[in-house]
Specification:
253 residues, seven-stranded mixed beta sheet, 10 helices
């Protein structure tokens, strides 16, 4: 195995806190067991990312494909939590000597937005639930903490750009010209749709859209947003499964 591959594999295990611990099984059909493990490993643990290794492998594969094929454009994640996936994006660019792409770190840095209770009652119930408020802390992580995590991994440089604010406010005016990777992890319908509406036209042919919560049913309308957008835009590129919750596609037209 080449040194770059060894480094990236070690980095994935560090970011996910799986050097000495097992990650929760994202495909576990027992939701109670999964949530308990999720809280223990991610929320109360030392992981910098909530992505399972399978989703990091997918992200790595997509980025490498765009590098190998010369697909132009920056990389972005909308909804970064502690910053793990975007740290990995920057690390891949550094490992492969790519100096003409930036990594955009987009987040409110104050947690998830309040869903419209009339349009999205499932999301609103989850947003105001005890587990979200008492255990997940609304997934709020400050920009300062995320930047400190970048610095700890020696990835905080001028190829990293932070976009702070609700996506409906920050994305329309973001100074992004082209993208090769769009990773959407905004959890809710409106955050997902904001990402698609404001970013998809900047995605180069051959670039990838990765949707972290497309397979979720119990607490989000993310899938509805993606399906509506793809239907309205007549996107026929196949949706491919990463695991039961995460899906992606490659733009071909």
């Amino acid at each position: 195995m080449e040194a770059v591959e060894l480094y990236l594999n070690l980095l994935k295990r560090s970011l996910t806190n799986t050097l000495f611990e097992e990650e929760p099984d994202a495909d576990n059909p027992n939701q109670t067991s999964y949530v308990s493990g999720f809280i223990s490993h991610y929320i109360r643990g030392f992981a910098i990312s909530m992505l399972p290794i399978a989703r990091f492998d997918n992200l790595q594969s997509c980025i490498l494909d765009t590098i190998d094929k010369g697909v132009p454009g920056d990389l972005i994640e909308t909804g970064v939590w502690r910053g793990g996936a975007t740290i990995f994006m920057r690390a891949m660019l550094k490992a492969y000597g790519v100096n003409d792409k930036r990594v955009w770190v987009a987040d409110s840095f104050q947690g998830l937005p309040e869903p419209d209770a009339e349009k999205f009652p499932v999301e609103a119930n989850f947003h105001n639930s005890k587990i979200m408020k008492s255990y997940y802390n609304n997934f709020a992580v400050s920009l300062e903490e995320v930047a400190a995590n970048f610095k700890a991994y020696d990835m905080l440089d001028d190829q990293v750009k932070f976009l702070k604010g609700w996506f409906r406010d920050s994305l329309p005016t973001a100074p992004i010209e082209k993208l090769s990777i769009i990773r959407l992890d905004g959890d809710y319908y409106e955050s997902t749709m904001d990402g698609l509406i404001n970013l998809y036209d900047k995605l180069s042919i051959g670039g990838y859209v990765i949707v972290d919560d497309y397979g979720e049913d119990a607490w989000t309308n993310c899938r509805q947003a993606v399906d509506e957008f793809r239907t309205n835009r007549k996107i026929e590129d196949p949706l491919l499964r990463v695991d039961s919750r995460c899906y992606y596609w490659r733009r071909t037209s």
